[in-house]
User: Fold this.
Amino acid sequence: MSDTATAAPSRPRTPEGTRRRRRGGPPGEPRAVGWLYVLPALLVYAAFLLYPLLRAVQISLYDWNGNTLATWAGLDNYVEVVGDPALRASFGHALVLIAFYALLPLVVGLVLAAILGRAKVRGLGFFRTVVFLPQVVAMVVIAVAWRRMYAPDGSINDLLSAIGLDALTRGWLGDYTAALPAVGLIGTWFEIGLVTVLLLAGMGKIPTELYEAARLDGAGAVREFFAVTLPALRGEIAVALTLTVIAALRTFDLVYVTTRGGPGTSTSVPSYEVYNRAFQQGRVGSAAAIAVVLTVIIFAISFGITRIAERER
Amino acid sequence: MRSRPTTRLIAVGALGALALTACTPGSGSDGTGSSAAPTGTVNTDPASLGQVTLTVWDQEVRGGQAAQIEELNKEFQAKYPNITLKRVSRSFDDLKTTLGLALSGNDAPDVFQANNGRPDMGKFVQAGQLLPLDRYADAYGWKDRYPESVRKYSSYSPDGKTFGTGNLYGLPQVGEVVGVYANKAVLAKAGVPEVPTDWAGFESSLQKVKDAGQQPLVLGNLDKWPAIHVFGTVQAQTTPADQIRTLGFGQSGGSWTTPENTKAAQTLVDWVDKGYFSQDVNGLGYDPAWQQFSKGTGAYLIAGTWLQADLGKAMGDDVTFVLPPKAQQAPVATGGTGIPWAVSSKTESPDAAAAYVDFITSKDAMGVLAKTENLPVADTAEQKAPSTIGQDVFTAFGTAVEDDSLVPYLDYATPTMSDTLGAALQDLLAKKATPEQFLETVQKDYGDFVAQNG
Assistant:
């Protein structure tokens, strides 16, 4: 960076140009120079993000097994994404996971943060760390551990039997109705920490005067929460939702390790389908089409969240 | 300011052009379909080949597998110091996901393990990336070493479309067969003194075990695929072997929706109804399941020979392995070979590569395999196993190969069959699908593929 910074002024430049800059024109004028500043980063970005993205779009228009010469398929792969009920269902499962990854953690996170933020508990740092802990463990490890707990002879069933709820015990991940929520709850457990810590940080920034004013007006803890805390946290909530919703939509490792999309196809999600088609079945074009659709959906949803958060500010 | 949209346009345009001029996916490789088999004489004396380096990719990373390949590589190096082996070992999953890309690139490994089925070996043959090994088979006498029932599993037509016949594209080191592991102690307690050798006896012993308050069959189907082996075993009792082969190799002319297959599917449902499996069959993982069996849960485990070392170690003389008790004349069993060793069509020294494949599948190599608790695919009957269960396994596999009664894994059939069949069997076992619905789902996958494959 320092190289470009020192090199720029020594560039041959018309006296008028220099003078105009001195007079306080916006930095980066003329525009061409601005592009030069951006160029190194842009090249890296283009090589590692834009090019692969465009290439994925291109591949999605072909019928390709990854090794032989591809044949043009037009929009066939996209038609399949829309038309195949099993694929459509996998997108539906991802939407269900949003409830578990984003909404549930947000509610629990708000409650936890409100308690941790207000209460003068001893060892608050300890509790914050404990809440955040799931975030530092690799998802694959988490998945393996939960798979054990969900097993027919696992600890969750042991617990249920111990409190007399034998009727509820089952092989959670192999049960057609329970499997998707069971996978989702792992995501809930994982994301709560992130959301709580984000919200706690946001609460720390709220001026205490606001609370004092609210209290003078006779607001109780609940009223205070809705009148002061929640509106002030809009930005943090938007960030938390963006992160968790994206995490929900691109869920792969969890499904791969716990259920492989089963039983039947009841927990299959788009990311798993992408992997499965590209690397297991040799249907790279179809996988790319799903990936592109997923990217568009993720982009649209996170764009929507930030827009709503900003507009209401 | 006016230049701003223009510059942006140029940048975007340049990127767009970059993408559009990028050639059709796959055109970087010589994806010309079949490649002509090289001709000319074969040099079977590796010592005379001069200095050669062979890059070898394998997935022999665990236990006895790792032990055998390390020993064989050491012996090969000692015998042919002019050939340097560059071994790259990966886990099975790793190898499967990276091999395709490597073969399309310029630095393809010379020798590698390519899984038999259509998504792997079939695709590579189609792309012309595998060297047909037939003239080496003639030169080294591989056709005597390997019976046809075994060679089938790595044979494809030169265009990669027909599986089970055509050119030879690889040689396996080990064999596999799915059979029945029986816990003799549990059976004895239930009043079954001997492991039944006929199907009727087997089914009635299931009921006896159930009546004795034990679980007859252990199955953990959370990973989707384990039930494929159980279904295959039952199907082999109801359906003629050649029909199963047509379906398993994905050849045209077969059908899933037959009375025989319906009977097989119905048998599985009956077993569920009679409580022969545990209630949460789809909720239990594969590994926890066989581990439960090894600790004394259940009388039978229908599984492959790859579990012999682990089960033998845990259960000692309590466990035995038999081919599926037969309903027909010959015992038909699902099985085949370990992952075959193939040679890249891009290798610069095909003679050295073939010599390596020959070396690790030779008679001496089979001895090393047996010693390190693997199931050698050739000359199995002549080998001595290091344990009783190992000897049971050798006998079973030897019998199956000799009688030509191995049928292929059903998920070999099409690139999507593993998923389709796995999910459909979960549905069947959970009674979300009737046997008829189950067979229609599978038939659709098979039928679509056959129609397209021609």
Remarks:
- The mean pLDDT of chain B is 89.
